[in-house]
Amino acid sequence: MSRAVIQIRHETDDMAAIKAMGERFAAAWKSGQQQDSVAVLTFSSPAQLFSVLTPKRWELIEHLQKIGPSSIRGLARSLDRGIKRVHED
């Protein structure tokens, strides 16, 4: 995975979201070019986002943005946290 996107989107119409996804897929298909892999995490509200991403998990994300790709062991070491706890998060 080369990139991750976290978004909060309140779709009142589920079909609109599905249609938008289909349009992005069709554009990528028609281009014939390999696309960058992107993991997209979509939440319906900030409350839902922060029910999943605890403060410690958010700390991991911020730290990874600073240091770039890292192993779990390396990430735990750089944050002075236990490997098991980082792995759980």
Characterise this structure.
- By secondary structure, the chain is α+β, with helices and mostly antiparallel strands.
- It folds into 2 domains: 1-45, no CATH class; 54-89.
- Helix content is 58%, strand content 13%.
- It is built from 5 helices and 2 strands.
- The chain has helices at residues 14-31, 46-52, 55-67, 72-79, 83-88; strands at residues 3-8, 38-43.
- Strands 1-2 form a two-stranded parallel ribbon.
- Strand 1 (3-8), helix 1 and strand 2 form a beta-alpha-beta unit.
- The longest helix has 18 residues, at 14-31.
- The chain is flat.
| Total domain count | 2
In terms of per-residue confidence, which ranges show pLDDT below 50 for 5 or more consecutive residues?
none
If you compute it from the alpha carbons, what radius of gyration comes out, rounded to the nearest whole angstrom? 17 Å
Shape, per Cα inertia axes: flat
* Mean of all residue-level pLDDT scores: 85
Task: Give the helix level as a range of percent.
Answer: 55-70%
The computed structural class is: alpha+beta
Tally of contiguous helical segments: 5
Tell me the strand order in the biggest sheet: 1-2
The fraction of residues assigned to DSSP E strands is 5-15%
Largest sheet: 2 strands, parallel
Gap from first CA to last CA: 18 Å
Order of helices and strands: EHEHHHH
* Number of DSSP strand runs: 2
Pfam family, one: HVO_A0114
Summary tags:
89 residues, alpha+beta, two-stranded parallel sheet, 5 helices, 58% helix, 13% strand, flat
